[in-house]
Amino acid sequence: MKKEKLKNAWPVQLLAWYRSQGRTLPWRENKDPYRIWVSEVMLQQTRVEAVKDYYARWMRRFPSMGELAAADETEVLKYWQGLGYYSRARNLLKGVREVQAAYNGELPKEREEILRVPGIGDYTAGAILSIAYDQPQAAIDGNVLRVFSRIYALADDVGKASVKKRIADLVLEVMPRDCPGDFNQALMDLGAVICIPKAPRCESCPVVECCEGCRQGLQRQLPLKKAKKAPLPVAVAVAALRNRAGEFLLHCRAKQGILAGMWEFPAAEGVDWAAAQAALEARLSAWGFKVELAQEVQKLTHTFSHRQWQMTVYATETVERKELAAKSLCWRKMSDWQQVIWAGPHAKIAQEIRESEGI
User: Fold this and answer.
1) What does residue 77 show for φ and ψ, rounded to 5 degrees?
2) Contacts of 73 (CB under 8 A, 6+ apart)
3) Kind of pairing between the strands at 295-303 and 307-315
4) DSSP labels, 77-146
5) What is the pLDDT of residue 7?
6) Looking at residue 192, what DSSP letter applies?
7) pLDDT in tens, 104-113
8) What does the pLDDT look like over 117-133, one tens digit per residue?
9) C-beta separation of 281 from 314 below 8 A
10) How does pLDDT run across 48-84, given as a tens digit for each residue?
């Protein structure tokens, strides 16, 4: 099928489908740039269904940029807890404060200007400018790369910057100028609901007649993407160390790096279980606790983009309560754990401990 025919036919068909069958989502209720911004940040690396409740709770507490900018980071992270990738929340807070201070509380309408706001990259800028401000801007994410690769049968690695640029140019070429936001959201919905990875639902696709990839039988092979390296497995030993007052020892992670500034049970990494266990015992000893990690009580795995924590949780003997010299340490009772901003998988460890205690 000729490119010109594709260009003329499928965007109109896609918009008609979107306006009759597009998803009803809370952040689509109006064109408030702040609400759109929050939703796009939450949706990065998180499923739509998982985001809905978090988004509603967030908007009840932080209904405007002013409310968020004035909030304490600890409270912001608490409302984000469960969504993961906490740097997103920190960058959103930093960006909102920048907008309040430098732009009088209004997100810039110029692409170069909005890209200067902390936490806003190409995709988020395109989404905000097109949806909130009706500007013809591309918002290129995995859904869009997949849809365009299939419609135009692009046999190139979509991970390459040159291919992403080519698809961005195609988006702008076919985008209806009177409704760029609707078109971008239609692409998002098509990629999320029908033109899905591995097993596209071509029988339900509103633009299947214009899809060159489907015509050539390539829809399951596209898009082409270089395989990612498997995350590096890392052994992690964790100690559930309790004192005679019933409090557990918690540690605040460093301000930089993975899960920065969040709370965990004492933990240490190693090349294998023995090394991780020895490193943790040494760490506890340096804090003044000479205990043995003898009893395994839990195993779990937590995967980041490049690392996979293979975790073993150990119970220790009960220790005397002592004053803690390091500011990064504290004693906390289980009844206070609801207020703790847990470092990723440590929330699951805490839940397992509570359940084992019948709480």
Assistant:
1) -65, -30
2) 90, 93
3) antiparallel
4) HHHHTTS--THHHHHHHHHHHHHHHHSTT---SSHHHHTTSTT--HHHHHHHHHHTT--------HHHHH
5) 55
6) I
7) 999 999 999 9
8) 999 999 999 999 999 99
9) no
10) 999 999 999 999 999 999 999 999 998 999 999 888 8
Query: What is the per-residue pLDDT for 51?
Result: 94
Residue 193 tokens, joined: 């609901």
The pLDDT, as a whole number, for residue 1 is 46
What are the tokens at 331?
A: 């004693």
Beta strands in 193-246 (DSSP E): 232-240
Which H or E element spans position 359?
Answer: none
Q: Tokens for 3, please give them.
A: 């490119």
- Is the pLDDT at 4 greater than 70, yes or no? no
* Distance linking the first and last C-alpha atoms of the chain: 63
Element of type H or E holding 306: none
* List of residues 6+ apart from 311 with CB closer than 8 A: 236, 237, 238, 267, 298, 299, 300, 301, 302, 345, 349
- 215-243 pLDDT tens trace: 999 999 999 888 888 899 999 999 999 99
Cα Rg of the chain, angstroms: 24
- Find the mean pLDDT for residues 12-30: 94
pTM of the model: 0.81
List, by residue number, the catalytic residues: 40
Q: Which two tokens stand for residue 322?
A: 């002592």
**Across-strand partners of 232?**
307
Distance in angstroms (rounded) separating the CA atoms of residues 30 and 150: 31
CA distances from 191 to 9, 146, 176 (A): 18, 7, 18
